[in-house]
């Protein structure tokens, strides 16, 4: 074979090997760039959680902060939630004062508020942000705990928080009230109400300076949405006949 041809072939082979070698060396650099982009995307996004996951994280991380960004907080909310309404700027003001090392669980009644609400935390530099997928309606239908305030009925004074849940076939209802001592010969009784149907949850007991009810049943009583605390006559006892209304509220 002609020497010139042999030399030309050798040059082509050497050049090809060098090209392939350079491509191999470049590969890790390209992978690293892709990895950095993925990490950036991960850090710039909140995480959606199903109601069960949201509930389990609440129980696991007791220092987590549950944030309700809706205007309907007083109609019922997740127990322990703080209300920073996104529509009036309350959330924007609050974010400036919140600790960035905590876990934040954000929800509303609709995606159009909960999604930008959760994103506001991310944009402000918070790293542990979760959003309730399906929002409050999904949480409600799943039977997870909800809470509402009870207000005094004149001439009585006082307030209370009422909670309810229906999980694993168990209905639970709790009321913790700040009330004065009942009149002599009287006691406080709790009721769940569905229209004209009153269901007694029993006599309130004073524990730790507050009057409380802790009622459980296998019967699902979520259709009894109204909560009433009454003042009853000791001599008549639990007679299934509600007397004077002291506090009232409603799960919605």
Report on this structure.
The chain is α/β, with parallel strands linked by helices. The chain folds into two domains: 47-141, Oxidized Rhodanese, domain 1, CATH 3.40.250.10; 146-250, Immunoglobulin-like. The chain is built from five helices and 14 strands. The protein has helices at 3-43, 51-60, 90-95, 111-123, 135-141, and strands at residues 47-49, 65-68, 82-83, 104-107, 129-132, 146-152, 159-167, 170-178, 186-194, 197-203, 205-207, 210-217, 226-233, 244-250. It has a nine-stranded antiparallel sheet with strand order 10-9-13-14-6-7-8-12-11, with no helix packed on it. Strands 1-5-4-2-3 form a five-stranded parallel sheet. The longest helix has 41 residues, at 3-43. It is elongated.
Determine the CATH topology of the largest domain.
Immunoglobulin-like
Give the DSSP E fraction (strand runs of 2 or more residues).
25-35%
Structural class: alpha/beta
Overall number of domains: 2
Level of helix content? Answer: 25-40%
Biggest sheet features: 9 strands, antiparallel
Average pLDDT over all residues: 88
Relevant terms:
252 residues; alpha/beta; Oxidized Rhodanese, domain 1; Immunoglobulin-like; 2 domains; 9-stranded antiparallel β-sheet; elongated
Give a brief description.
By secondary structure, the protein is an alpha/beta fold. It has helices at residues 3-43, 51-60, 90-95, 111-123, 135-141, and strands spanning 47-49, 65-68, 82-83, 104-107, 129-132, 146-152, 159-167, 170-178, 186-194, 197-203, 205-207, 210-217, 226-233, 244-250.
């Amino acid at each position: 074979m002609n020497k010139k041809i042999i030399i030309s072939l050798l040059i082509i082979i050497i050049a090809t090997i060098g090209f392939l070698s350079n491509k191999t060396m470049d590969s890790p650099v390209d992978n690293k760039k892709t990895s950095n982009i993925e990490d950036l995307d991960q850090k710039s996004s909140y995480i959606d959680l199903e109601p069960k996951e949201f509930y389990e994280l609440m129980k696991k991380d007791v220092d987590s902060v549950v944030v309700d960004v809706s205007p309907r907080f007083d109609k019922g909310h997740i127990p322990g939630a703080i209300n920073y309404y996104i529509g009036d700027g309350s959330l924007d003001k609050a974010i400036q004062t919140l600790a960035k090392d905590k876990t934040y669980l954000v929800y509303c009644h609709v995606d159009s508020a909960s999604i930008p609400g959760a994103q506001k935390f991310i944009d402000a530099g918070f790293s542990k942000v979760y959003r309730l997928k399906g929002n409050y309606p999904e949480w409600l239908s799943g039977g997870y705990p909800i809470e509402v305030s009870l207000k005094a009925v004149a001439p009585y004074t006082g307030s209370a928080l009422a909670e309810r849940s229906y999980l694993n076939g168990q209905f639970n209802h709790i009321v913790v009230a700040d009330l004065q001592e009942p009149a002599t010969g009287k006691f406080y009784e709790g009721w769940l109400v569905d229209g004209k149907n009153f269901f007694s949850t029993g006599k309130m007991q004073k524990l730790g300076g507050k009057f409380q009810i802790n009622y459980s049943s296998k019967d699902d009583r979520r259709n009894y949405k109204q909560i009433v605390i009454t003042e009853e006559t000791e001599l008549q006892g639990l007679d299934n006949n509600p007397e004077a209304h002291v506090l009232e509220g409603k799960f919605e």
